[in-house]
Structure formats: C-alpha cells, structure tokens
Amino acid sequence: MAGEKAFRVERVVIEALPNRTYRVELPNGHQVRAFVAGRAKERFTVNAGERVRMQMSPYDLSEGRIVVVEPVK
C-alpha cells in the first residue's frame, strides 16, 4: 500500500478470524478482511465490536490494514 494513495476508514470489527485477521463491515455493507501488520501485532489485541481505523488501498478494496484500535467505551 502506497502511503500517498491509501485512504483511511473508521469501522467496527464484526468477527475475529484465524491468524490475527478480522472481518470488518464498511458503510456500504461490504465486508473486508483486515490484518494488523508488523510490530503492531504485539501491541494490538482486537476483539469483535471494537472500533478500528484501517488503511485501504484504492487498488484492492477486499482487504485493509488496521493502524489504530480505539478502546471500547
């Protein structure tokens, strides 16, 4: 994902999948697979129902990279 061309979305995780991947639903109803990349895997623990910010590439809208996990209030 190129930093300049990628865009960010804020959504809610609906399901935790194997291998630290997650299913996230977008505002238009589509579900995408998301992952936590690099060293952030050690810092983030994501559960269903948590709000996350994802970075997505305009070239592949089927997956995204989780960059921030917001605490549940």
General description of the model:
There is one protein chain. The chain is mainly β and 73 residues long. It has a single domain (7-70), classed as Nucleic acid-binding proteins (OB fold (Dihydrolipoamide Acetyltransferase, E2P)). The protein contains one helix and five strands. It has one helix at 40-43; strands at residues 7-17, 21-25, 31-36, 51-57, 60-70. The protein has a five-stranded mixed beta barrel. Strand 1 (7-17) and strand 2 form a beta hairpin. The chain is globular, with a radius of gyration of 11 Å.
Describe the secondary structure blueprint for this structure.
Blueprint: E1 7-17, E2 21-25, E3 31-36, H1 40-43, E4 51-57, E5 60-70
Parallel strand pairs: 3-5
Antiparallel strand pairs: 1-2, 1-4, 2-3, 4-5
Q: What key phrases describe this protein's structure?
A:
single chain; 73 residues; mainly beta; OB fold (Dihydrolipoamide Acetyltransferase, E2P); five-stranded mixed beta barrel
Structure, briefly:
By secondary structure, the chain is mainly beta. The protein contains 1 helix and 5 strands, in the order βββαββ.
Strand content: over 45%
Helix content: under 10%
Second rung of CATH, namely the architecture: Beta Barrel
Kindly report the CATH topology. Answer: OB fold (Dihydrolipoamide Acetyltransferase, E2P)
- CATH class category name: Mainly Beta
CATH superfamily: Nucleic acid-binding proteins
- SS summary, helix count: 1
Unreliable residue runs = none
Main β sheet profile: 5 strands, mixed, barrel
Note the run of SSEs as H and E: EEEHEE
The count of β-strands is 5
Number of domains: 1
Mind telling me the C-alpha Rg? 11 Å
Shape, principal axes of CA atoms:
globular
Structural class: mainly beta
Tell me the strand order in the biggest sheet.
1-2-3-5-4
The separation of the N and C termini measures 31 Å
Question: What is the arithmetic mean of pLDDT?
Answer: 85
